[in-house]
Design a protein that fits this description.
The complex is a heterodimer of chains A (about 375) and B (about 550). Chain A has about 375 residues and is α/β, with parallel strands linked by helices. Chain A is built from twelve helices and 16 strands. Chain A has helices spanning about 20-30, 75-90, 110-120, 140-145, 150-155, 170-185, 200-205, 215-220, 240-245, 255, 270-285, 340-350; strands spanning about 10-15, 35-40, 55-60, 60-65, 70-75, 100, 125-135, 160-165, 190, 260-265, 290-295, 305-310, 315, 320, 330-340, 360-364. In chain A, strand 4 (about 60-65) and strand 5 form a beta hairpin. In chain A, helix 4 packs across helix 5 (about 150-155). Chain A is globular, with a radius of gyration of 20 Å. Mean pLDDT of chain A is about 75; it is low at about 45-60, about 210-215 and about 220-255. Chain B has three domains: about 5-55, Urease, subunit C, domain 1 (Roll); about 65-70 and about 205-500, Metal-dependent hydrolases (TIM Barrel, Alpha-Beta Barrel); about 85-200, Diaminopimelate Epimerase, Chain A, domain 1 (Roll), CATH 3.10.310.70. Chain B has an eight-stranded parallel beta sheet, with helices on both faces. Chain B has a six-stranded mixed beta sheet with strand order 3-2-7-22-23-24, covered by helices on one side. In chain B, strands 9-10-11-12-14-13 form a six-stranded mixed beta sheet, sandwiched between helices. The chains are: A alpha/beta (about 375), B alpha/beta (about 550). The interface between A and B is small, with 11 and 12 residues.
């Protein structure tokens, strides 16, 4: 199954309570480039829309003065998306070209992502564009340790917006960046001031941009490893983060449990076997896989790699690329995991994925 | 320590590791304290010791039945219309007609078991019409010999709220006449639940009835020499009945319970995770909720078993139908891993060789991810691809055999009609399993068979023939086992397979005094007389729980 490129992109905006997600959303909504956006706010959301003139309202659906639609999730997300679609068909609301879903600050975003990635009522007409997480530069390091939800939000993100970076101390910034590198290696981090962010930088981050190209593959495949994966192991010694290396482990306990692993297979794989292995991983280790992203060389069409991504036990249908994004034609999959040993990935891939020449790299 | 009870002058087959014989067994506090010669146990005799002279008779450990549905067996005995699986279609109707004439209108006629051999009659609306003629005013629900199908009349469909328009439930089928689309009254797999639920609603004091059924079931088991058993699908009300009975001191057998992972055909709201979470509520000395039951497929007679090679072509399924597994390999692996995490083993129903293979694959997945774990049982392990036999051993999987179902009989005839001869004749590779070092245990599957008589199974495993006659021939006779191996399968191995081996399964010092006295020495008779063996006395924990008049 492949994603329909004519489906409507959905961006999920997540972030812990007080991390500035609402401010970011407000800034985005006032940008004219987003005038054809429908915004879905979880009913516990705290968005303040008072300053935006409300021109029309039916039930829980409001049309903002910039033309955006805004509604809250009653019932479930699937129902809300269907209602939006029906209202467009009946002419009740104007058509829109994208959807932004703001999750509640306390939510684990995984269920929403699962719906968008795999619910058969959703996937034909909507697709998960990307996940944006706001992380508060001042309190982030603490929040990521203290709150499981915050950690999951960052782990599944395609972009992390580091908010309040203008008021954070250098130490706080270093600490939060250090934390994020363990939880979300390779995920671009964008510092924002007062919630201002260029929509282009965060709304076309997923696997499927308008042209059907994969804009983001390189980001999460960790550039450093493309030539020599062993470099990853030295990641934490990079210059400029000297402070982080000294960072006390007591505030960084996730280091012990949250790990990014990268699996590389030299030869093209049988998709039947490889996808069976992924299915087994999802069944046996779903809870321990916060996020999986990768590019796979398949023996049936080695020139058109498949892009895979999954959150916990749910995988998005694979997306076939027209061509490889770089000269490296190897299968590379990054796993952000909790309490998962890399050896397990490696030997189960050999056995059930029927892949030889597998190497596995731990990313600290 | 002095003995409470000493058996002397017997032929005591201990089924210990050396398969040794003794003449005397001494019992104290419900346990065996010594096994040996009469002289050796003599010193244990005290003033209050009772001595039983076995007069040369054979004694052996109590039998363990690793697969039955005891509550339903007891219930069938106490409350239901008894139909023998050898009856013809017309004969079944006659039984129903007679019953209908005896009871008040709208009272249910429920019972079984009809033989799979009449199933071909039930794919036409005429089948329902015939049952309606036999019982126009009473709802009828008859279970088949696989217990996976039901045959109901129009009155029952009305009580069930089912018409010809009703869509099939998931994993079930309300069979319809291909000529006119009308329900024929045959309900396959999960469609059976609709009938069972409607019937259950009419039962007053279900709890009391379950307790009586359980009590009766254990009496029947004890009368055949069974002192331990594994219930193969123990639903919440059955657990409650077991637990209540044990609290009253009336449970005279070890009962290992298998909690249903999925909603059982019989209909109950509590299963899977919810029931697993509650399991310790029901644990007692003799009630051991240590297994989870998972169904991988249906049964070959209705072509719901998952087979590696296609079934014999027919009109309904065409040329290349293989049945299908109910649970995917990753999903099953996840279940097994979860059970192991809870300290539970699984009993996995696999009637077809495809289901067996998938299950072994799933256990392989669990072992590959999690390393060695608990033993699991594959139930009804009859169709096994030769390549899969050694995997039982390497993956620590037990074969739960159902010998009473498979010697030449109506069910075998129905299986042979459904599956090409090349495959159906190679059914129950017991000798191959033995030689591969696989732990085998055996169960009755009562009330799939009309009583849980293990002696039929014992003879059948030795002779590969029907002990009752009437169905000539032997099924794959090369796979016959020796009596000593078969006895082990029914005692010592069964104890290992159910996790009861620290308690029972052999006659050895320290084990529970679960002892049976038989009217003949099994090793001194012809193999076709094994099923004639009668249990004279059954002792459970040193207490006499059955004595033949």
């Amino acid at each position: 199954m492949m994603t329909n490129r004519h489906s409507i992109p959905v961006t999920v905006l997540t972030g812990f309570l007080g991390s500035g997600k609402t401010t970011v959303l407000n800034r985005l909504l006032s940008d004219s480039r987003l005038s054809d956006t429908a915004v879905i706010i979880n009913e516990f959301g705290e968005i303040g829309l008072d300053h935006l003139l409300v021109t029309h309202s039916t039930e829980n659906l409001i049309v903002l003065n910039n033309g955006c639609l805004c509604c809250t999730v009653r019932g479930d997300l699937v129902q809300t998306l269907c209602e939006l679609e029906m209202k467009v068909s009946s002419g009740e609301i104007p058509p829109f070209r994208r959807v932004v879903i703001e999750t509640t600050g306390l939510a684990d975003p995984a269920p929403i992502l699962h719906t968008l990635m795999a619910d058969p009522a959703v996937t034909p007409r909507w697709h998960l564009e990307g996940v944006i997480a706001t992380v508060d530069a001042v309190n982030g390091a603490h929040t990521l340790v203290a709150h499981e939800e915050a950690l999951k939000q960052a782990a599944v993100a395609d972009r992390i917006l580091l908010t309040k970076s203008d008021i954070a101390s250098a130490d706080e910034l270093t600490a939060v960046r250090y934390q994020l590198r363990g939880i979300a290696p390779g995920t671009p981090i964008i510092e924002t001031i007062d919630g201002t962010v260029d929509p282009a930088a965060i709304l076309a981050v997923g696997l499927y941009d308008a042209a059907g190209k994969i804009a983001d593959v390189r980001h999460w495949l960790l550039r450093e490893q493309q030539n020599d994966g062993r470099n990853i192991a030295h990641h934490h010694n990079h210059a400029g983060h000297g402070k982080a290396a000294d960072h006390p482990h007591d505030v960084n306990r996730h280091d012990d449990r949250i790990r990014a692993h990268c699996i590389i297979v030299e030869e093209p794989v049988s998709w039947t076997s490889f996808s069976y292995w992924l299915e087994l991983l999802a069944a046996m280790r779903g809870e321990q896989m916060l996020r999986v992203k990768g590019i796979v060389a398949v023996s049936d069409h080695p020139e058109q790699p498949l892009v895979i991504h999954g959150v916990q036990h749910v995988f998005h249908p694979p997306v076939k690329l027209e061509k490889w994004p770089s000269a490296d034609r190897r299968t590379r999959v990054v796993f952000i995991t909790r309490d998962l040993q890399i050896e397990e990935l490696e030997h189960t891939l050999r056995k059930f994925g029927k892949a030889d020449r597998v190497s596995a790299l731990a990313v600290p | 320590m002095k003995a409470d009870l000493i058996f002397i002058n017997g032929s005591v087959y201990t089924v210990d590791a050396a398969r040794s014989w003794a003449s005397s067994v001494a019992v104290a506090d419900g346990k065996v304290i010594a096994v040996g010669t009469d002289t050796q146990t003599d010193s244990l005799k005290g003033p209050s010791t009772r001595t039983v002279d076995l007069r040369g008779r054979m004694m052996m450990p109590g039998i363990i039945d690793v697969h039955n549905h005891h509550t339903r067996g007891g219930q069938a005995d106490l409350y239901e219309t008894n139909i023998s699986p050898t009856l013809s279609f017309e004969q079944v109707l006659a039984v129903v007609r007679k019953r209908a004439s005896e009871i008040a209108p709208d009272e249910w006629i429920s019972g079984g078991i009809w033989g799979s051999n009449i199933v071909s009659n039930l794919y036409k609306k005429a089948a329902r019409d015939a049952l309606d003629t036999a019982s126009p005013d009473n709802p009828v629900m008859l279970r088949d010999d696989s217990q996976h199908s039901r045959w109901v009349n129009s009155r029952a469909l009305k009580f069930m709220g089912v018409g010809s328009e009703t869509p099939d439930p998931e994993d079930g089928e309300i069979v319809r006449d291909p000529d006119n689309g009308e329900a024929t009254g045959l309900l396959l797999e999960r469609a059976s639940t609709l009938a069972e639920t409607a019937l259950a609603k009419t039962v007053k004091d279900a709890a009391g009835r379950n307790m009586s059924s359980t009590r009766r079931a254990v009496q029947i088991l004890n009368s055949f020499g069974v002192t331990g058993y594994q219930d193969a699908n123990t639903m919440l009300p059955y657990l409650q009945a077991l637990s209540a009975l044990d609290a009253k001191g009336e449970l005279t057998a070890w009962c290992v319970a298998s909690l249903p992972a999925h909603q059982p055909l019989m209909g109950t709201d509590v299963f899977g995770d919810e029931l697993i979470a509650r399991r310790e509520e029901f644990r007692s000395r003799h009630v051991r909720p240590d297994f989870v039951k998972i169904f991988m497929d249906g049964v070959p007679t209705t072509k719901t078993a998952s087979m590696i090679e296609p079934y014999t072509p027919d009109q309904l399924y065409g040329c290349c139908f293989r049945g299908e597994a109910l649970v995917s390999i990753p999903e099953l692996a996840r279940w097994i891993a979860k059970c192991e995490e809870h300290g539970l083993s699984t009993k996995i129903h696999c009637a077809g060789d495809g289901a067996v293979r998938d299950t072994l694959d799933a256990i392989d997945v669990v072992r590959s991810f999690n390393g060695p774990g608990r033993m699991h049982q594959i139930a009804h392990a009859g169709f096994i691809d030769p390549a899969d036999i050694p995997r039982f051993k390497s993956l620590d999987v037990i074969a739960d055999l159902s010998p009473i179902i498979w010697y030449p009989s109506p069910i075998i005839e129905a299986i042979q009609a459904a599956i090409p001869e090349k495959r159906s004749s190679r059914y129950w590779p017991n000798r191959d399993l033995l030689e591969a070092g696989v732990l085998m245990a055996a169960g009755s599957d009562w009330p799939v068979v009309s009583n849980p008589d293990p002696w039929l199974g014992i003879e059948g495993m030795v002779t590969r023939r029907n002990p009752k006659g009437g169905f000539p021939g032997a099924l794959w006779p090369e796979q016959a086992l020796d009596l000593a191996d078969v006895i082990e399968i029914y005692t010592r191995n069964a104890a290992r397979a159910t996790g009861l081996d620290v308690l029972t399964g052999t006659i050895e010092a320290g084990k529970s005094a679960d002892l049976i006295i038989i009217d003949r020495n099994l090793f001194e008779i012809q193999s076709d007389e094994l099923a004639d063996a009668r249990v004279l006395s059954t002792y459970f924990e040193g207490n006499l729980v059955f004595e033949r008049d």
